[in-house]
Amino acid sequence: MKVKRIMANTATSDLDKADRFYGDILGLERLMDHGWFHTYGSHETMMVQVSFGSEGGSGTPVPDLSIEVDDLEGALSRFNDAGVPIEYGPVSEPWGVRRFYVRDPFGKLLNILQHE
């Protein structure tokens, strides 16, 4: 057996919040729309990874999702422009990533990162 895809699902009664956050700010495409269930993603080739930890590094909580971007400063600017509070960082970590934490509209803690 080969794992082909891993999808994170979040319950919400306000799909517009998902569209604004994951579509408008993060720039993901709406790949599926059943009316009651929206899926956002990218057609980029991505690695499949699932992580487990007792902390998120540097004494931070374990994030619910980690999202690697190709332009961290650009991502930071988009979150700042949208008024999304930055909960941690931006900071260059000793293990070779630059990152910051935000919460999505559903309370999920996101680790936005770029490898240095």
Counted beta strands: 6
Q: In which range does the helix fraction lie?
A: 10-25%
Taking pLDDT < 50 over at least 5 consecutive residues as the criterion, the unreliable ranges are: none
Rg value? 15 Å
* Sequence of strands across the biggest β-sheet: 3-6-5-4
* Distance from first to last alpha carbon: 34 Å
Count of helical segments? 2
Strand content: 25-35%
How would you characterize the largest beta sheet?
A: 4 strands, mixed
Summing up helix and strand content along with how strands pair, one would put the structural category as: alpha+beta
User: What oligomeric state do the depicted chains represent?
Assistant: single chain
**General shape:** globular
| Succession of helices and strands | HEEEHEEE
Mean pLDDT: 95
Please describe what this structure looks like:
The chain has 116 residues and is an alpha+beta fold. Helix content is 18%, strand content 29%. It has helices at 15-25, 72-81, and strands at residues 29-33, 38-41, 65-68, 86-92, 97-103, 109-115. The strands form 2 sheets. It has a 4-stranded mixed β-sheet with strand order 3-6-5-4, with helices on one face. It has a two-stranded antiparallel ribbon with strand order 1-2. The radius of gyration is 15 Å and the shape is globular. The model has no long low-confidence stretch (mean pLDDT 95).
